């Protein structure tokens, strides 16, 4: 990659348009069906399109796709070695704390190990990995008026333990499941 040290495109101050957003994540997976069991079966994303035997597109709410999975370069492959560069995690935003709690119940019932849970001041997050060892964050934002700020008005995010028992109590009625670990 060419050096960007003296490149005006990287040295001139620039702020992206406020309407720009991240559109989707496209993941390389080793086993498409196994990945589908996680993303569709456990997390509930809907398949919007299959692209032959090598790719599938999934979304929430009828969007064309939020997550794409493919085996084009990774069929039967291994996860990246620890210490390698790459994607840290895909973050899936839930609209409410109750929706996050329902997702957490499904993850626990599927006996998927949690890697962590945190209150970040601006959001509450649960961390896990998909079957290909890609990091996944399930989270919901807190209302902006609750976001912690410094006396100067800057964001003051933090990482504190998240009480998963309290979170699970907010899951909607009818999302109870009979299987999965009993203790967190």
Would you kindly provide a brief summary of this structure?
The protein is of the alpha+beta class. Helix content is 18%, strand content 25%.
List the helices and strands and how they pair.
Elements: H1 8-11, E1 25-28, H2 32-42, E2 46-51, E3 55-59, E4 67-70, E5 89-93, H3 97-109, E6 114-119, E7 123-129, E8 135-141, E9 160-161, H4 164-168
Parallel strand pairs: 1-4, 5-8
Antiparallel strand pairs: 2-3, 3-4, 6-7, 6-9, 7-8
Q: Could you characterize what this model shows?
A:
The chain has 184 residues and is α+β, with helices and mostly antiparallel strands. It folds into two domains: 23-75, 2,3-Dihydroxybiphenyl 1,2-Dioxygenase, domain 1, CATH 3.10.180.10; 87-176, Roll (2,3-Dihydroxybiphenyl 1,2-Dioxygenase, domain 1). It is built from four helices and nine strands. A five-stranded mixed sheet has the order 5-8-7-6-9, covered by helices on one side. Strands 1-4-3-2 form a four-stranded mixed sheet, with helices on one face.
Query: Approximately how much beta-strand content do the residues carry?
Result: 25-35%
Say how many strands there are.
9
Tell me the overall shape.
globular
In whole angstroms, the N-to-C terminal distance is 45 Å
Instruction: Give the biggest beta sheet.
Output: 5 strands, mixed
How many separate domains make up the residues?
Answer: 2
Low-confidence stretches: none
- The chain-level structural class is alpha+beta
Helix content: 10-25%
CATH class wording of the largest domain: Alpha Beta
Q: State the helix count.
A: 4
The ordered string of helix (H) and strand (E) elements is HEHEEEEHEEEEH
What is the CA-atom radius of gyration, in angstroms? Answer: 19 Å
Strand order of the largest sheet: 5-8-7-6-9
Q: Write down the overall mean pLDDT.
A: 92
Q: Would you give the CATH topology of the largest domain?
A: 2,3-Dihydroxybiphenyl 1,2-Dioxygenase, domain 1
